[in-house]
Structure formats: structure tokens, C-alpha cells
């Protein structure tokens, strides 16, 4: 079995966040979640995640400013960016 990782999920859609969180936790990972990039940046600093999964478009702060912030870190986490368009 793969080692458990700490994953930060930044997603404003509650249904998507809940679904992704469930899948990741059932795979043995610890998941912390934020509803926008502002809260996500705070959690990056306090939680030191191995992976950040972020939505591209969110209110308050989207995924691109989060990526810019992560690039300033000495040891940035890996990133997966997701998006959905209705």
C-alpha cells in the first residue's frame, strides 16, 4: 500500500469537495480543505501538505494566485489544478 499523504483540497463547490475528500480519505490520505485560495494559503503554511488540489476558478481567490504563492516556497508541494465549466 502507498504511504499516506497529507492533501490540501481547495474547492468552493461543496459537492465536489465532499466527493474528492471521500475518495482521498478512503484511500488512506489525510485531507484538509479550504473553500477558497485565501484560506488555502493559510493552510499551506500551517499544515505543510504533500499535495495541493485546487480549483482554478473560485470566489475571493482562485487557483492561479495560489500557484504563484506556492512558487515562492522553499519546498512547494505538488499541485493538481481542477476546473469545471457548466
Can you put this structure into words, describing what you see?
The chain is an alpha/beta fold and 86 residues long. It has a domain at 1-51: Response regulator (Rossmann fold), CATH 3.40.50.2300. It is 38% helix and 23% strand. The chain contains three helices and four strands, in the order E-H-E-H-E-H-E. A four-stranded parallel β-sheet has the order 2-1-3-4, sandwiched between helices. The longest helix has 13 residues, at 14-26. The radius of gyration is 12 Å and the shape is globular. The chain starts with 5 loop residues before the first strand and ends with a strand. The model has no long low-confidence stretch (mean pLDDT 94).
Spell out the key features of this protein.
86 residues, alpha/beta, Rossmann fold, four-stranded parallel sheet, 3 helices, 38% helix, globular
Overall form? globular
Give the percentage of residues in beta strands.
15-25%
Unreliable spans are none
Order of helices and strands: EHEHEHE
Q: Provide the residue-averaged pLDDT.
A: 94
Q: Tell me what the CATH architecture of the domain at 1-51 is.
A: 3-Layer(aba) Sandwich
Can you tell me the CATH topology of the domain at 1-51? Rossmann fold
Structural class, from secondary structure content?
alpha/beta
Task: Identify the CATH class of the domain at 1-51.
Answer: Alpha Beta
> What's the gyration radius in Å?
12 Å
Strand order of the largest sheet: 2-1-3-4
Amino acid at each position: 500500500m502507498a504511504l499516506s499523504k497529507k492533501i490540501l483540497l481547495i474547492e468552493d463547490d461543496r459537492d465536489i469537495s465532499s466527493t474528492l475528500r471521500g475518495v482521498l480519505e478512503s484511500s488512506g490520505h489525510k485531507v484538509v480543505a479550504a473553500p477558497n485560495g485565501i484560506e488555502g494559503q493559510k493552510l499551506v503554511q500551517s499544515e505543510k501538505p504533500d499535495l495541493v488540489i485546487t480549483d482554478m476558478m473560485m470566489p475571493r481567490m482562485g487557483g492561479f494566485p495560489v500557484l504563484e504563492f506556492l512558487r515562492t516556497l522553499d519546498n512547494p508541494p505538488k499541485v493538481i489544478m481542477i476546473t469545471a465549466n457548466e
